[in-house]
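Bug report (template v2)

What were you trying to do?
Predict the complex of my protein with guanosine-5'-triphosphate.

What happened?
Run completed; filing so the output is reviewed.

Input:
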Amino acid sequence: MKLVVIGIGDCGSNIAAEFVRLGSKAKAETGVDVLVRSYAINDDQASLSALRKVGEKLLTIQLPASAVGNKQIEAGAELMKANGDRIIATMKAGEFFETDAFLLVSSSAGCIGSGGVSILARKLKDRYVNKPLYALIVLPLQAEVNIPLCVYNTALCLKSIDKTADAVFLFDNEKVMSEASIKSAASNDMVNREIVSPFFDLLRASEKVDPRFLGTRNIGVGDIVQSLSGWSAIGYGTAQIPSSGFSLFKKGDNFESKGEETVKVMEAMSAALAHFSIECRLEDARKALYLLCVPSKNANINMTRSVGNRLRELTNNGEVRGGDFYGVNDIATVTLIASRITYLDKIKDYYERASNVAAQINKRENPTP
Ligand SMILES: Nc1nc2c(ncn2[C@@H]2O[C@H](COP(=O)(O)OP(=O)(O)OP(=O)(O)O)[C@@H](O)[C@H]2O)c(=O)[nH]1
Ligand SMILES: [Mg+2]
């Protein structure tokens, strides 16, 4: 799948840059192009300049500085209403023909990104009616969730993007941070790499890959598009497949060794389930997608079936699609997407708290004399 990624605000721009790195990795490792172009749109000139070194696939677009002090989501929305058409006019529209989908990225808690993302999404949807448009929204850290403005901006951002995008991937900053990133002063780059890396296998496997990597059942762009709608979460997990001495039996040619290798794949699946981008219950997902990557020498049809069957069980017979492809390392990787999620604790909580917070914010903005 070939994406045009459009990041808005600080968080969105940083993640758009990370997609450029992912695109280069896909090109270097498997020779496929998964990124048509990345755009970073921000009002902060210094951070845009810092991103320019990432590579020529990243184009930066400067917004006029937002109204000083006002960090409510409405200010970000107004800025995009005033500048959105100009922004689209500066994009390389000729490249959109080879693009399978747009991916718009922002945080929910800031102002520029959270306000701008739905406005730009609407403008793009009106112009490119048949092009799927997805959003990737980063939810605040635990330390931020009691700041009234964070709650207010997040709730409004979620409400508006849900109405506009075909599917919205949610990333809980708190959940995505691995122990490693917390220990290393929570560097944004490391968190952003964790946000972007689950898309790697999915994007490259759905492109025309070298026949050496083709698995027993391949997934295409159509499978991804059919699987994505509404609130969505993505996760991936890995398990090491020892290259020698793994089984008492010769690999791949008898029941026993195949069984052991399938166990490793299920281990990778459990890791993926534990690393979803937001806390969710699979029984609330109406759609799901899986992708398995194993070395060809270890692959067998049972592995793919086992992952698919388990996912059907967990989603209560949801609409499940999936497939596999071959990797070169001795690792089993499982990528999972839960989509059309009908209930999420986090969203319910933000919506409930936003109404109280809105009253507080209004009082502060318009104090009674
Ligand atoms: N994962 C991740 N989160 C980020 C990053 N930068 C900021 N955030 C989070 O995003 C939220 C703040 O939003 P920003 O993207 O900085 O805001 P903005 O869209 O630039 O809008 P302003 O408020 O006008 O600066 C907070 O919840 C931060 O924790 C980043 O690079 N990666
Ligand atoms: Mg900013």
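What did the reviewer find?
Residues 9-10, 44, 110, 112 surround magnesium ion (ligand 2) (CB under 6 Å). The chain has two domains: 3-197, 213-341.
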